[in-house]
Amino acid sequence: MKPICAISTPFGTGGIAVIRVSGEGVHALVDRLFKAKTSLMDAKPGTVHFGRIERNGETLDEVLCSVFRAPHSFTGEDTVEIACHGSLFIQQELLRWLIDAGCRAAEPGEFTQRAFLNGKMDLTQAEAVADLIAAQSKAEKDLALSQLRGSVSAELAQLRERLLHFTSLVELELDFADHEELEFADRTQLVALADEIEYKLDKLLASFRTGNAIRHGIPVAIIGAPNVGKSTLLNALLGEQRAIVSDIRGTTRDTIEETLVIDGILFRLIDTAGLRETDDVLENMGIERSRRAAQNAQVVITLLEPQMNEALTRENREKNESILDFTAGFTDIIAYNKADTLSPLEREQLGKNAILISAKNGDVEPLRRELVRLAIETMDTSAVMLSNARHYEAITRAHDAIKRVQEGLENKLSGELLSLDLQDCLSALGEVTGQITNTEVLQNIFSKFCIGK
């Protein structure tokens, strides 16, 4: 394959920029432009060399060249990484000189794609590279790093290898169909294996909700009556005026979403329209969206005013009870706003475990701590966890196939029919790691990468 080159650092002016060059013959190719005491052709792998980029007597820049030799490089090919000064002109001119010398500009994700094709990583690890680059929180970084190290790959490879062994035995029986008394695959062991695989795939599928939340942010819906302070709370958590705050009921007519990182965990906060009975058509549409947001969120904050007899009218108490009825069964946090209006005795009567905040005064730390506590309870980035929709879809098909195998074994189906479902399961598992794939899938995956990676 023709050598490829690209700028691997973010676009713009900076202290330095890195241009990556990979492919057969790149040491000789870069040597045509690189002038130094040591030729890159003779340089030892893993060394860095200072020199100048020159062409036809013109010096472009002083650079450092890092030398990697196949197969000990990111792509598995001969590679040179050129660190130059971060001038946009120098970056673009150096790319042009490399292309003139025999390179071509890399496509998005092409370096990682070559690493996959050269066996340096499987497809789940390649996708984890993009996730690691895009990570916005510590939890997301930890999850991507775990997958890059092969957590998902290792789990699926073990299952696939054992399943492949039994599939081979079942198909061997088909070759001796004339001898019905021959049974190479012990059905009892196959039942046990199918049960184990079904259990592990079911566990992986269940992990997707958490993994997807870590990757895109844990959805947190803020639910409550009008004027209880939901938008003020959103602004207080974000530390900026994102939502419009007004004493007029029904100001928030639609959901507002913003992301926030607390202690390395990404949350997706959803401010919703106040819940109440109203004849306003637009407000009712907003309330319906509030209901859907609450049902789809992973964490629901029900925001109330403190329920003190001397502090609230009967109407307000009924309003709070109505909100609690609505969120019963799926609310995760009940927080009392406007706590600054309470006396010490009233605070005590609410109980020591009550989450008391004052969104208007920015006193929301108890709520922040509770959000982190709930998130940590549900997250274990050291565990094998799915976070990729493509993986989820393929493992769902593998799970369906192994369920058919279980049913077939229970109904004593022939080896021929069992073999079809076993092959479906193997194929779906192979699609996750890239053992079975096609060009269109690869192009779709790597087209989402940044150029230079």
Secondary-structure map:
Layout: E1 4-7, E2 14-22, H1 26-31, E3 34-35, E4 48-55, E5 58-68, E6 79-86, H2 88-101, E7 104-105, H3 110-117, H4 123-134, H5 138-148, H6 151-175, H7 187-216, E8 218-224, H8 230-238, E9 256-262, E10 265-271, H9 281-296, E11 299-304, H10 314-327, E12 333-336, H11 344-350, E13 355-356, H12 365-378, H13 389-410, H14 415-433, H15 439-446
Helix pairs in contact: 4-5, 6-7, 6-14, 7-13, 13-14
> What do the pLDDT scores average to?
83
Order of helical and strand elements: EEHEEEEHEHHHHHEHEEHEHEHEHHHH
Percentage of residues in DSSP E strands: 15-25%
- Broad shape: flat
How can the largest sheet be summarized? 7 strands, mixed
Helical amount among residues, as a percent range? 40-55%
First-residue to last-residue Cα separation = 17 Å
Which structural class should the secondary elements be placed in?
Answer: alpha/beta
Count of DSSP E strands?
A: 13
Low-confidence stretches: 176-182, 244-253
User: From the alpha-carbon coordinates, what is the Rg to the nearest angstrom?
Assistant: 30 Å
